[in-house]
Amino acid sequence: MSLAVTELTESELLELRKSDAWLPSEATRRCLVEGIPGPETLPCLQASDVAMGAALGPNNAQDPIRSLLARCYNSESKADNQRLVITADMVSQDLDGLMQLLKEHWYHAALVLTHRLLTSYGHGFDKVGQTSARLTPLTAQLWLLRLSLLKRTQQYALMNQELEAFGTLDYPDVYYEHAPHLYPGRKGSMVPFALRLLYAEAPRFIERQSEALDRLYFLAAVVARLISNLENGYTEDGSVVCPNENYQKTSLVLWRHRECRIYSCCLSIYLVANDYPSAIETVYRMISRLEPFGEHHFLYGVLGRIYLKFGDLESAERMFEKALEGSPADAPSTRSQRSMYSAMLLIADGRFNEAKRLFREVFDSDPSNVAAANNLAVCSLYLGQLEEGISLLELLTTPKPPVLGSPQPTPPLLPLHDSIVSNLAVLYEVESDRAASRKLHLLERLASVPGERLHARAFKLPLT
Predict the structure, then answer these.
(1) So what's the pLDDT on residue 329?
(2) Are 104 and 451 a contacting pair, CB within 8 Å?
(3) What is the pTM of this model?
(4) By the 8 A CB rule, do 189 and 175 touch?
(5) pLDDT band at 49 (very low <50, low <70, confident <90, very high)
(6) Which of 245, 272, 293, 409 has its CA 20 to 30 A from that of 70?
(7) Hey, which residues does 189 pair with through a beta bridge?
(8) Which regions does the record annotate with the repeat TPR (predicted)?
(9) Band (134; pLDDT cuts 50, 70, 90)
């Protein structure tokens, strides 16, 4: 059992202060200083989600793989025989049950349970469509989990709707100082940083990239102020001197990494938009933040792949070399990465046979390397060796036979990944006019793997 707030030691409060730190707007700061209540944060579940939760039966039609099977078979019972689905009703209706569903990758069932738990804490709609429950540290974490699950299951519209109820995440009641009698000694925001980041990037998933960038750069500006305070010897909010050198150092590491998470979201937006100049500038910004910790070298590999996208092989090769600087030359991981970089350059130069040989070497030494497997299949496609590419990807998407005495099949040879399944579906389409039946067999094969490890779209079968 976790300690109550009143039982936290001074050192524990200091550790929490690092991760909880945030800078309120001037208007909110005045409310906190003067004890003015201000607007309230009243997040609530959407009515449409209530209806969805009520509609779930024991077979859980919301499971994407089972739903796709039922559509292909035109039979609910046949889909049930093919796919065993775990539902929210099959676990304890508490945080332990939620953790069990997450551990086993049953994301839709976990969503249903977050709905039930948040409703029990007063975050559902009442008869007039309003919620009266205020945010607490526990419900803030539950909301983060629920919204992350909505992102994982690609329910982007609902995710954005539910985020709207949080306002700008800056009302006085999201800060511990608003209720010192409830949270003695606590400083900062009960809204986790990860929730602020999700709020900032959410609009990009509904085609509002500019709004997402505005939010992300606002977030980065606040983090920059926190970092500036730390660098000048003060705590994150600038109110007092850092208690010791170790506090300052560890907090700076934490916030530099969080700053890079923000820029990583920006980078994703620029790459989707093919805005390579902005993407390159963003990566260099990340490098400057991580270089003091010696954690920046992999970002030169990111730069190399960006240069490859618009055909600058010379710059790409230079970046790949910088990415390997400082790595032990004889280490297996270094040799593998060097081969991957060399193969990427060969593909860009149209030398698929040589690239294929290098990808094969990497894959043979590390069968868990998804990038090597995918690129090996791509090379096979360009070389007209479809059967070889198909055989490789089929091997990676075939669960091993169940171990004697085990009720469920063991996982596939390599962690399931949408790109593996999607590429195999494409190879089927290129290879023959029996693509639909082969993709259905692929779906049936992977339906035996428990949990929601793949998105249904990866199979490239009709979803409606």
Answers:
(1) 86
(2) yes
(3) 0.91
(4) yes
(5) very low
(6) 409
(7) 175
(8) 297-330
(9) confident
State the Rg of the chain over Cα: 25
Tell me if 398 sits within 8 A of 445, measured CB to CB: yes
Cβ atoms within 10 A of the Cβ of 293, count? 11
Mean model confidence pLDDT for the chain? 90
Of 282, 321, 285, give the one whose Cα is nearest residue 300.
321
How many residues are given for the chain? 464
- The CA distance from 43 to 27, in Å, is 21
Res 225 pLDDT > 90: yes
One-letter amino acid of 205 = F
Residue 268 clears pLDDT 60, i.e. is over it: yes
Q: What was the pLDDT predicted at 256? A: 98
Contacts of 47 (CB under 8 A, 6+ apart): 125, 129
Beta bridge mates, 241:
234
pLDDT at 403: 53
CA distance 316 to 293: 24
Q: Are 227 and 252 in contact (CB under 8 A)?
A: yes
Task: Identify the band that residue 125 occupies on the pLDDT scale cut at 50, 70 and 90.
Answer: low
At 265 the pLDDT is 98
DSSP 457: G
Residue showing tokens 């469509």: 129
Q: How many CA atoms lie within 13 A of 399 on its CB side?
A: 17
Report d(CA 102, CA 116) in Å as an integer: 15
What is the percent of the chain with per-residue pLDDT over 70, rounded to a whole number?
91
**In the block, which residue shows the tokens 């970089």?**
341
Rounded Cα distance, 132 and 129, in Å: 10
* Contacts by residues 67-72 (CB-CB < 8 Å, ≥ 24 positions apart): 67/456, 68/443, 68/456, 68/459, 68/461, 68/463, 69/443, 69/444, 69/447, 71/461, 71/462, 71/463, 71/464, 72/440, 72/443, 72/461
Which residue stretches of 83-171 are H helix?
95-103, 107-120, 137-152, 156-164
Close Cβ partners of 24 (under 8 Å, ≥ 6 residues apart): 32, 170, 172, 175
Task: Count Cβ atoms below 10 Å from residue 265 Cβ, excluding itself.
Answer: 21
Q: What is the pLDDT of residue 51?
A: 45
In the structure encoding, which two tokens stand for residue 312, read together? 């600058």
Contact residues for 252 (Cβ-Cβ < 8 A; gap 6+) = 227, 230, 231
Q: d(Cα 147, Cα 144) in Å, to the nearest integer?
A: 5
Question: DSSP characters for 278-337?
Answer: HHHHHHHHHHHHHGGGT--HHHHHHHHHHHHHTT-HHHHHHHHHHHHTTS-TTSHHHHHH
